[in-house]
Amino acid sequence: RLMDSRATGQSECTVAIVGFGTVGQAVARILKSDLHPTIRLTHICNRDIQRKRVDWIDPDVVWTDSFDSVLASSVDVVVELIGGVSPARSWIERALAAGKSVVTANKQLIAEAGPALLTQASEHQQKLLFEAAVGGGIPVLRGLREGVSGDKLYRIEGILNGTCNYILTRMEAESISFDEALAEAQQLGYAEVDPTADVDGYDAQAKLAILIGVGLKRRVHAPNIPVTSITAVRAIDFVYARKLGYVVRQVARAELIPESTAMHASVQPALVPEPSALGRVGGSQNIVVVDGKFGGETAFSGFGAGGDPTAVAVVSDVISISTKDSLLSEGWLPMSEMPSRVIAEFEAAHYVRFTVNDRPGVIADLAEIFSKHRINVDAVLQEPGWSKSELPFVMTLERCLSSTLKKALSEIEQLNFHVRPPLWLPVLAKGEEVP
Ligand code: NDP
Ligand code: HSE
Q1: Peptide bond just before 334 cis, omega within 30 deg
Q2: Are 355 and 417 in contact (CB under 8 A)?
Q3: CA 41, CA 372: separation in Å to the nearest integer?
Q4: What is the Å distance from ligand 2's center to 348 Cα?
Q5: pLDDT tens track for 374-406
Q6: What is the distance between the alpha carbons of residues 61 and 18, in angstroms, rounded to a whole number?
Q7: Among residues 303, 293, 114, which one has the least CA distance to residue 213?
């Protein structure tokens, strides 16, 4: 399908952008520049397209709100940037059936239907690439598929949501509220249309499911990966974390269990050492750290959200299709179908923050329940100056299974001195935060 360009002698590749929002506009800006003379934007498709028109797009580009007209055109690559599962899934299926390759940034859809869509792409001799779906501009899927494909990976850990990382690092550095930090992230184009997908962990859950498929070669049903929201993290947690030498991050992790098809996986806020690879990731940046049997630890980092970085990944996928380079254009299915059961269980040290109406015996009551569950208390931290009627303090606990801690906490929550539910965070100690 790719036509020869007389100017360069290279194949010309025509592109339709479907979804002219934050990422779609950033893709158009790159394609409008003279960086990629063999890639030509021919269509922009969006609902109510008249609202979306801008004057900096070349006049010969077709603006349409009809996806059918994109399908009927001779465009080579459809770039899907509307997000969500419906109608994105059927549009991608129809594009592939119509003989067009597809590039998408849609992590929700790829987590849910990636293998089926890749199979369809292969059946129609087309390509389906989705680098921007995980880690924004970081070429982590390419790195896993090609760069470390010679290794046997067994662990993946990372910061996969730019909005959460932006909120947590802004709250910590500038002492601004959660709502203010979230509003900034939305303004900067990092957040999903429904930002609860970001802050409650579902965006990172989908990305982790894709990484598990591509990197660990296991298929997990994304909703089976347990998620914990970052909304319960409060300003006081940054103070106590810092005292301990840690910072708070939303961490996604997955680990194979030897000799088993089951695996550990979770997305939750955690304490990571301030000087660690994860601890140094600030703002909308992301990081993915993988551990392999032969190659050891490899890290991929960069900007995980925002129009421009994400657009770089999208355009790079288009280039990969147009130049037919790399394993990706050889019809190789990078996502595995081997099903895996997810066990929501890790062993770790823990940080537990209580907020209580203070009275004599609070610590003794807590210690008694922890002791009953054979959980050893490591330290108690209490900052002076707080009201006794809403007193926050922290207990750090030695390593135990998360299920053991949850059992102890469900008993502790029955005690009558809580002003807020306790917040527990795993403490990913040095050597654990980067496996
Ligand atoms: P936006 O909401 O900014 O843009 C989506 C665009 O698609 C809007 O213009 C919207 O139109 C249009 N659209 C939505 N539904 C339809 C539909 N049914 N028919 C026609 N047009 C539609 O989202 P983003 O650009 O931020 O994200 C796009 C995709 O990229 C998502 O899958 C997202 O998860 C992913 N992504 C985003 C990143 C980011 O940092 N923003 C990073 C990595 C991936 P309208 O104006 O009417 O709403
Ligand atoms: N909402 C996502 C994030 C966009 O904040 O990371 C990038 O996938």
Answers
A1: no
A2: no
A3: 66
A4: 27
A5: 999 999 999 888 999 999 999 999 999 999 999
A6: 13
A7: 114
How far is ligand 1, taken at its centre, from the CA of residue 58, in Å?
22
Name the one residue in this structure whose structure tokens are 């290279």. Answer: 10
Q: Which amino acid is at 13?
A: C
65-82 pLDDT per residue, tens: 999 999 999 999 999 999
Element (H, E) at 318: helix 307-323
- Ligand 2, CB within 6 Å, residue ranges: 136, 161-163, 190-192, 198, 203, 304-305
* Ligand 2 pocket: which of 198, 285, 287, 308 to mutate (most atoms within 8 A of CB): 198
Which residues are registered as beta bridge partners of 101? 77
**If 0-12 CB within 10 Å is exposed, 13-18 middle and 19+ buried, where does residue 344 land?**
middle
Beta strands in 274-343 (DSSP E): 285-292, 296-303, 342-343
pTM of the model: 0.95
Helix (H) or strand (E) holding 355: strand 347-356
Mutate to test the pocket of ligand 2, among 23, 108, 138, 163 (most ligand atoms within 8 A of CB): 163
β-pair partners for 267: 227, 252
Angle at 229 between CA 247 and CA 132, to 5 degrees: 85
Tokens of 414: 């029955």
Please determine, for residue 11, whether its predicted confidence score (pLDDT) is greater than 90. no
Task: Tell me the β-bridge partners of 137.
Answer: none
Segment (H or E) for 280: none
**How many angstroms does the Cα of residue 308 sit away from the middle of ligand 1?**
14
Question: Which residue is associated with the tokens 């961490």?
Answer: 251
Q: How far apart are CA 207 and CA 111, in angstroms?
A: 7
Cα separation, 242 vs 155, in Å, equals: 27
Give the span between the Cα atoms of 140 and 101, in whole angstroms: 21
Tokens of 290: 């993988």
Q: Amino acid identity, residue 119?
A: T
